[in-house]
Amino acid sequence: MDKHYENLLLAFEEAEKARDEGTFPIGAIIVDADGSVVSRGRNRVFSSCDSTAHAEVDAIRKAGNMILHLESKKFIPKNELTLYTTCEPCPMCTSTIVLSLIKKVVWAANDKDIGAFKKFKELNSELPIYNDLFKDIEFVAAPYRDLELRQRKMLAEWNNSRGYTDTHWNDELANETVQ
User: Is 56 among the catalytic positions?
Assistant: First the structure.
C-alpha cells in the first residue's frame, strides 16, 4: 500500500469521528517530510457550532508549531508539510492552506460544487492573487476510485440524513457499489 493511500485512510478515521459527532464527515491529517503525522483534524462545524471548523483548518491549527516560528514572528518557509483530506478543500480551506505555506495537498474526493483548490490554482495564472504562494503547491486529486466513492457515500448519507436527497454526492453512487 502506498503512502498516499495509507495517509488518506488516516484522514478517513477522522471523517468517521466527525460523522459520529453529528457533523460533515470530512477528515484531514498533516504529515512532515519524513511521513510522520504531525496533526489530525476533522470537521467540527456542527459539533462545535463553528462555521470555520473545517477538517483542514482544524489540522492546520493543530500543526501551528510546524508552520509558525513564534520567537521570530515568521512563517517557517520550507515546512515541507503535506495535507491529506477526504474531500477537495473549499475556498476557505484552500486559502488557509496557501497562507500556511503547506507544500502539497492530497484529497480523496473531488467536489464539483464547493471544491476550490483546482479552480483557484487554475485561476491563479489569470488572477495572480497568491502567485508567489500558490505556484509551489503540488496537489494530487482523487487518486483512488474506492476512496473517492467512500467519501461520496459518507457525504451522501450525511446530506440525506438532513433532508438533502438531491445532491451531487449521490450522482456517481447510483450505479456503483461501495464496500
Answer: yes
